Amino acid sequence: MVNSIAIPEATGLRAGIKAPVQETLLTPRFYTTNFDAIAQMDLSGQQAELEAILAELRADYNRYHFVRNEEFEQCWNHIDGDTRKAFIDFLERSCTSEFSGFLLFKELSRKLKGRNPVLSEAFSLLARDEARHAGFLNKAMADFGLSLDLGYLTKNRPYTFFPPEWVIYTVYLSEKIGYWRYILVYRHLQQHPEHQIYPLFRYFENWCQDENRHGDFFKVLLRSQPKLWNNWKARFWSRFFLLTVFATHTLTVLERSSFYESIGIDSHEYNQQVIDNTNETAKRAFPSILDTYHPEFFPRLEKCAIASQTLAAISSNQRPTVIQFCQKLPWIAVIVWQLLRLYLLPSINAETSRTAVN
């Protein structure tokens, strides 16, 4: 069940505060969940793993990592035009996504305090990391004369309700795909320093280890609940969320092709590398994964991206709403059909093929 808790639109943003992008299926969302159900989770089946990841989180390896150095202290007006617009969009969406995680984890920690102290502490540590990430990204936006009013977002963005099971699947995937997104950009720019247009990217190597640890924590939650991996429903949902995350990633990356081109990355190749690696990583937690090497997999995802870009163009054509709706229907049908065909491709049984333990 998914419910959106609507919050009234606010007005009167201060000068230099960027108005949030219009919410779509591709923009990061804010979530809430059933806190009582999470408080009552039995984690005994993964006790050793839970203690190990808690020790990692407590160590706080990146305590002193997110400190801006003198390299930031310059004028960035030479990054202009489409590159500047695409980069600000990247920063905004990334900041909103990290802040969304902070809000969810902070509320989980607060609601579980006194009821499940171990989970309360873990979520507090996760919130700490996400707050650092969001703040660092927001300061990067300020270098371009804009920033997000995170307090405004807290009060004025709608919150979507996800059951705890959906939260575990989606957050696990978002953290692991975040790891691969950051590390692949970092490795590319290490090999091609001529494309290092902004110092933020130098922080990605350590940064992505936070994403990895967060994903490991949610893997512990997932594997502690047999109903999330040992039945046909779990196989259904795991493949569903993989496909949802991969489709969203494809649409977002190809929509931002100009940003990736500005740092010397081919968006199509990058998208495939991120998805292939995330899918392989998910094998360590999920009971079933997708066959991303199937010859139809990426061509069908890219057809969805083309349809999505066409829908965006229709939304901005200033025609009456009824006409826009009629124009959109065939392209919505394209996306639904392609996703259905992708979901019905043969999948991989991760329980029998798993050869590594994360």
UniProtKB/TrEMBL annotation:
Q: Which cofactor does it need?
A: Fe cation
Return one Gene Ontology term, BP aspect: photosynthesis
Top enzyme class, one word, equals oxidoreductase
Task: List the catalytic activities from the record.
Answer: Mg-protoporphyrin IX 13-monomethyl ester + 3 NADPH + 3 O2 + 2 H(+) = 3,8-divinyl protochlorophyllide a + 3 NADP(+) + 5 H2O
Q: Which UniProt keywords apply?
A: Chlorophyll biosynthesis, Iron, Metal-binding, NADP, Oxidoreductase, Photosynthesis
Pathway(s) of this molecule: Porphyrin-containing compound metabolism; chlorophyll biosynthesis (light-independent)
Rubrerythrin diiron-binding domain mapped to chain residues = 89-221
Keyword Hydrolase recorded: no
- According to the UniProt entry, what is the EC number of this protein? 1.14.13.81
A GO MF term? iron ion binding
Coiled-coil stretches are none
Pfam families in the record: Rubrerythrin (PF02915)
Keyword Iron belongs to the record: yes
InterPro entries, A to Z: AcsF, Ferritin-like_SF, Rr_diiron-bd_dom
What protein family is recorded? Belongs to the AcsF family.
Q: What does this protein do?
A: Catalyzes the formation of the isocyclic ring in chlorophyll biosynthesis. Mediates the cyclase reaction, which results in the formation of divinylprotochlorophyllide (Pchlide) characteristic of all chlorophylls from magnesium-protoporphyrin IX 13-monomethyl ester (MgPMME).
Q: Which protein is depicted? A: Magnesium-protoporphyrin IX monomethyl ester [oxidative] cyclase
**Species, as recorded:** Phormidesmis priestleyi ULC007
Show the taxonomic lineage. Bacteria, Bacillati, Cyanobacteriota, Cyanophyceae, Leptolyngbyales
